[in-house]
Amino acid sequence: MNSAAANIGVRRASPRSFSQLINRRECLGLLLASRCALARQQQPKGVPPSKDWVCPMDPDYRSDKPGKCPRCGMTLVLHVPDRIEYPLEVTQSPELLRPGDTATLTFRVLNPATNQPVKHFEIVHEKLMHLFIVSENLGFFAHVHPVPQLDGSFVLKQQLPDGGMYRMLADFYPSGSVPQLAVDTLFVSGTSKHIDLLPSLAPSKSVNLTASLRLEPAIPLAGLETKMFYTLQPGEGLQPYLGAWGHMLVASADLVDMIHLHPFIANGSPDVQFNLTFPRPGLYRIWTQFQRQGEVNTVVFTVPVKAL
């Protein structure tokens, strides 16, 4: 094979053209570097990058400026620490509780790094601690606020009407951490009254309003998001309650799952939307609280959820 045939289809850069290519790349690199340096100089010092303000309770909400989260009302922060669980220690007096007794409950939040009680908390929806209490038959519901003490503990006096098990969900925000949800269990001697838990999606009436609920999809599927559309009547006179347009507690029939939510869309109109992913199939009781003309209304629905 001659040399001409061996070079068919092969393009070779001459020393001159290769040098020109290198020079072009160097010039392009210098141009891009100078533009990046100029952009950094034009960025005012101390101003965080865009979309860097985050809601500590709903970290998927981000903003390019400080303010309040439109979903839950929490103050946006520049950095959300890693989520580390803070244990909740609960003691009761008297030790043996009977139906109708007023229990004195003491709550202590422990620092997981030191196992010492936490003494400093951030305000969450106008309170340092929210507590939800639900009886095992799902007939009793309370949304209350233990009183902070000088040693960092919280104390609540609460009457428990029936025997059996009560589940408690505490909502608190240790300083330097993230908002926490902690579940605990309380037992009262005796048994609870039997209540047939059946699906119930009829309009729910409370003190001075009635709420209608529409689900999308109409039959929720476990593991997939369900949109929950509330319509409140009368629609005038609605007010924020504890810093939000609504508070929702969701409890599975076996009380294994307890979920605390705030509206996804709400602006003071009678139409309020929550978004919820039910973790498992089964029945769920849902308590939702709205305030109208100074009165707190608790409406109740029982929703069946199917397997995917």
Describe the structure.
Strands 14, 15, 16, 18 and 19 form a 5-stranded antiparallel β-sheet that branches. Strands 3-4-8-7 form a 4-stranded antiparallel β-sheet, with no helix packed on it. The protein is globular. Helix content is 10%, strand content 37%. The protein is mostly beta strands.
Keywords:
308 residues, mainly beta, Immunoglobulin-like, 5-stranded antiparallel β-sheet, 2 helices, 10% helix, globular, disordered N terminus
The value of Rg in angstroms is 29 Å
CATH top level assignment of the domain at 204-305? Mainly Beta
Number of helices in the DSSP assignment: 2
Oligomer: single chain
Structural class: mainly beta
Roughly what percent helix? 10-25%
Topology, pairings included?
Layout: H1 3-6, H2 15-42, E1 53-54, E2 62-63, E3 88-93, E4 102-109, E5 129-135, E6 141-144, E7 147-148, E8 154-159, E9 164-172, E10 180-188, E11 204-205, E12 210-216, E13 225-233, E14 238-239, E15 247-252, E16 258-261, E17 271-277, E18 282-292, E19 295-305
Antiparallel strand pairs: 1-2, 3-4, 4-8, 5-6, 5-9, 7-8, 9-10, 11-12, 12-13, 13-17, 14-18, 15-16, 15-18, 18-19
Q: TL;DR of this structure?
A:
With 308 residues, this protein is mainly beta. The chain contains 2 helices and 19 strands.
